[in-house]
Write a structure and sequence with these properties.
heterodimer; A: Rossmann fold; Alpha-Beta Plaits; 2 domains; 26% strand; B: 251 residues; mainly alpha; 0% strand
Chain lengths: 302, 251
């Protein structure tokens, strides 16, 4: 048995360049077992390269990676059954049905068709078991890709934009699947561009920019530390922007799309001052989100 | 289920569900058999006593085997790499040798099925092909020929990123070779210089071997030379194919 105190993933001063581009630039990261960690960042930030190095698909230039105490590179047949990978391209065996595809994958792990059917049920695809892999809808494709990563019940699961192009309902369905995995004690590393999703799902998020980790913490901690504050929104015309910026506690004022936005660190003081000069009925408040933190961080670095 | 069983089963299902593959693998060579059969119907080759069909049929069969082997592996490799199936396989603990072996077994089974169907049709009275008693000698040639063109397919599959590229490159290689090797036109009808070109074509040796085994014509020395040359071609093409092999398009 593995030593459970050992972290799921340890990445130490990892770098990888493609020509002059430093895709991953000195990343150090420890993921404890059972953690759900999100890798965020703009396209080209190095998320996929970092994940692929950890999976053993790419060789780093410098630095080390261990996954559950194993080195992923060169191809390590002792480690491979312990990790599950969903790639951005949905890799399915051509002309097969969903269950035939999963049975084939299961065989690669030395498992029988029970494993395939369990994985199908796990992602709620049992009804589509006999559908050809080319005929299933976008949401089902994503779920089948995740089922492919789960066939062998791995300890560490890598998901690269699993909710990419899904409609809101399909995304919520997938969230349930991911939460279930987290509940079962699996370690999950995932990338996404949906920041509210990362905020809702992740224990911690790492924000990558130009190959570096520019922030790493729980979403809550990141939001409160970034001091992006709260926004008070009211229709344009209800109060003049000049008057608004002179209110007690208001840091700045922006006008956008018919909405006047007051930025503040002191919501109650602003609301009190606002209430004294106008009707509060049409006023909305919006708490800072991970997206605000993200945009501020990426904006500051660019 | 072992990796070997699972992969051969998946390939069998994929092949039988793909009408285009079935047509080009099994029906297309028969179309050529009909065409050439009509062109050379009733003609006898002077001195040997064989009908022309006895030489045309091994030629079309040689081309059919080469075509199916090269295109089969090239399409599969291109598709598996493009769709990240190669990476998926690499991320499982399966032995790569077992994966390769399963693919080989599939190619050999297709080749045997092609031969049986083709010879079965060619020997009906309408075509009137005669099969010589030493026909079992066709088996090693068939295996070596498949191995050679699997190597060719490995190269085509490694350098092609789209199905269109596989078709274009594959046809540019296989179709001219079918003519230059004597598979479609008897080498006897070629000018001398073109006849020497035919010796550079791997297909020429499959043809020589099959003619010796099936038509019972030619020298035993030519048969063994064909086997040896095919071993050489298979080794060289496979080595080049493996050198060009990548697991993913963005490597």
């Amino acid at each position: 048995m593995q030593d459970n105190a050992e972290p799921a993933i340890e990445v130490d001063r990892l770098s990888k360049s493609y020509g002059a581009v430093r895709a991953v630039d000195g990343v150090t990261l420890t993921v404890p077992r059972g953690e759900f960690i999100g890798l965020l960042g703009p396209n080209g930030a190095g998320k996929t390269t970092l994940i692929e190095i950890i999976e053993g698909l790419r060789t780093p230039d410098t630095g080390t990676v261990t996954v559950l105490g194993h080195h992923p590179h060169p191809r390590n047949r002792a480690l491979l059954p312990l990790i599950g990978v969903q790639t951005q391209k949905s890799a399915f065996f051509p002309h097969l049905t969903a269950s035939e595809h999963l049975e084939t994958v299961a065989a690669f792990y030395g498992l029988d068709r029970q494993a395939a059917h369990r994985a199908l049920a796990q992602v709620g695809l049992t009804d589509s078991a006999d559908a050809r892999v080319t005929k299933v809808s976008g949401g089902q494709r994503q779920r089948l890709a995740i089922a492919t990563a789960l066939v062998h019940q791995p300890e560490v699961i890598f998901l690269d934009e699993p909710t990419g192009a899904l409609d809101p309902q399909a995304r919520r369905d997938l969230w349930a699947v991911l939460r279930q995995l987290k509940g079962a004690g699996k370690t999950i590393v995932y990338t996404t561009h949906h920041l509210e999703e990362a905020e809702a799902l992740c224990d911690r998020v790492a924000i990558l920019h130009r190959g570096r980790v520019v922030a790493l913490d729980t979403p809550r901690e990141l939001i409160s530390r970034a001091a992006v504050g709260t926004q008070v929104l009211l229709p344009v015309g209800q109060i003049a922007p000049e008057q608004a910026s002179s209110l007690d506690g208001v840091d700045s004022v922006t006008v956008d799309n018919g909405t006047l936005t007051l930025h503040t660190q002191h919501l109650t003081r602003v609301l009190a001052a606002l209430g004294a000069s106008t009707d509060l009925d049409g006023v909305q408040t919006r708490a800072a989100t991970l997206e605000d933190v993200y945009l501020e961080l990426i904006g500051a670095q660019s | 289920m072992t990796v070997f069983t699972a992969l051969t089963r998946a390939s069998y299902k994929a092949n039988t569900r793909d009408a285009v593959t079935i047509f080009f693998t099994f029906a297309f060579p028969l179309v050529f058999l009909v065409i050439f059969g009509l062109i050379f119907k009733g003609q006898e080759v002077v001195e040997t006593g064989n009908g022309y069909i006895d030489f045309i049929a091994p030629g079309v069969l040689a081309w059919g085997l080469a075509n199916a082997a090269a295109f089969g592996v090239a399409f599969t490799l291109m598709q598996w790499r493009r769709d990240d199936l190669l990476r998926l396989i690499r991320l499982t603990p399966a032995r790569i040798s077992e994966v390769v072996l399963a693919r080989l077994a599939v190619a050999v089974c297709i080749g045997v099925a092609q031969c049986l169907l083709f010879i079965g049709v060619a020997t009906i009275p309408l075509f009137g092909m005669n099969v010589a008693p030493r026909w079992p000698l066709a088996l090693p040639i068939m295996l070596l020929g498949i191995a050679t063109f699997l190597g060719v397919g490995l190269i085509i599959g490694a350098i092609s990123k789209t199905p269109e590229a596989v078709s274009a490159i594959g046809n540019c290689v296989v179709i001219p070779m079918a003519f230059l090797s004597g598979a479609f036109i008897p080498v006897e009808l070629m000018p001398d210089w073109l006849r020497s070109v035919s010796y550079a074509m791997p297909l020429r040796y499959i043809l020589d071997g099959l003619v010796y085994a099936l038509a019972g014509a030619g020298e035993v020395g030519d048969y063994w030379r064909a086997c040896l040359v095919l071993v050489g071609f298979a080794t060289v093409f496979t080595a080049i194919g493996l050198r060009l092999f990548t697991w993913s398009n963005d490597e």
